[in-house]
Amino acid sequence: MSVKASKIIAEAADAMFDPSYTRFDKVNDWLKWLNAGQKQTVILKPDAYVKVTARGMAAGVRQTLAANELLLFDIVRNIGTDGLTPGPAIYEVDKDHFTQLNPNWAKDQESTEVQVYMYDPDVPQIFWIYPPQPSSGSRGQVEIVLSTIPPEVSDVENDISLNDQYEDALRHYMLYRAYLVNAKHSAIERANAVQEWNHFVTYLDRRDLIEKAKEPKSTKREKINAG
Question: What CA–CA distance (Å, rounded) separates 77 from 130?
């Protein structure tokens, strides 16, 4: 089963007592927020959108993820220079330990077949492979597992890109963005925005990101003056 963007948008609009989309536009507001919610979901929970794909190797040992690729989960196996031929499995090793055993590993004999890879999540856009890929001619391809930014939903009648289980999280994120529009000038809207954000991150099991509502400074001044 797939969830259409229009379903989540309609539920969010109803929650804002705006089923006719008078306050917020269906496409320019709600669909934009839905797409932003999908992206934010994967940033906070990288396994929410995972892609398994063939990847051609660059020359040498250093490899770079694309701009829309957030995190490397695994490099499974070699698949030949054509991307179709099943080859040996590839193992992850610790870079420091591997360097201690073979300080010159980056200069070893070139090969199109990858034996091991090294990855540090603190440097998420880079990984290293061994042995080095050829500096010229054909290079190997591997089967790689990645967290990526999901494709945007281009039409309200299209399915969301994430799995159905994120439907509620996306709706709460969209409501967060809607309440945020007037949050600077309204303590109530700010509190509602914080509440929706907290629902969103709780659905993603990121309770470390829960916020507390803070009143705008103007509201605090009004209370002091009134007192």
Answer: 13
Closest CA to 46 of 211, 210, 204: 204
- Angle at CA of residue 121, ends 65 and 83, nearest 5°: 35
Could you read off the pLDDT tens digit of each residue along the chain, which spans 227 residues? 489 999 999 999 999 999 999 999 999 999 999 999 999 999 999 999 999 999 999 999 999 999 999 999 999 999 999 999 999 999 999 999 999 999 999 999 999 999 999 999 999 999 999 999 999 999 999 999 999 999 999 999 999 999 999 999 999 999 999 999 989 889 999 999 999 999 999 999 988 889 875 554 544 444 444 44
Structure tokens at 125: 């856009």
List C-alpha distances in Å: 177 to 21, 95, 173, 202. 15, 42, 6, 16
Q: Is residue 225 part of a domain?
A: no
Find the domain containing 186 and state its range. Answer: 5-46+151-218
Q: Give the position of tokens 């695994």.
A: 74
Is residue 97 assigned to a domain? Answer: yes
For 157-211, what is the HEC assignment? CCECCCCHHHHHHHHHHHHHHHHHCCCCCCHHHHHHHHHHHHHHHHHCCCHHHCC
Q: Are 32 and 54 found together in one domain?
A: no
* 203-227 exposure pattern, b = at least 16 Cβ within 10 A, e = fewer: bbeeeeeeeeeeeeeeeeeeeeeee
pTM of the entire predicted model: 0.85
Mark whether 175 and 100 lie in a shared domain: no
Cβ-contact 73, 145 below 8 angstroms: yes
In this structure, what token pair is assigned to residue 19? Answer: 């089923």
